[in-house]
Structure prediction request, 202 residues.
Amino acid sequence: MKIGILGSGKGSNFDAIFQAKQSGQIDVDIVLVASDVCDSLILKKSAERGVAARYIDPGAYKTCLEPAAEKAYVEALRAHGVELVVLAGFMRVIKEPLLGAYEGRIINIHPSLLPSFRGLRAWEQALNFGVKYAGCTVHFVDRDVDTGPIILQAAVPVLDDDTPETLHARIQVEEHRIYPQAVDLIARKRITVAGRKVLIRK
Prediction:
């Protein structure tokens, strides 16, 4: 399966997926990494590893892509034959035409146990709320924020002396474990979506 990865920052989940591919844990071809941040570390890493890396100007909006930018992302993904779009710290809300072009084929990882703590800095929301467990969720992307069908989740305990930084670091360890697993499940066609339920075949 050919996958395209969209990211805005350091690319730690790109690292995890790339390493899983290199070690033979997952059978995918990372054909494109695209970013809305021209000097993002994820673009630098992908270029160093021989993966096509492209900056695409997001336009003037702060939280989403302008329609012309959405179209440019679709064109870039299609030009590389991308079958699955993987959001890895992409800090833009996905809208049309990207959602329509890849309906049911865009996944994201969010640093909370959805449906709790949607949106930005979810680990900090969890810590401030006083929950005993936090975690991360891989989900399909739909037309709202962090609401798509859930593929995999992993929980971590919230410790009494946790800071936002220590909790986030512990959550990211689990992100790097389950995101490649979710990509593998999709690549091997082991997933069926029935309404809001994601069924995983053995």
Notes: The first helix runs from residue 12 to 22. The CA atoms of residues 135 and 171 lie 5 Å apart. Strands lie at 2-7, 29-35, 53-55, 84-87, 106-110, 133-140, 150-157, 191-194, 197-200.
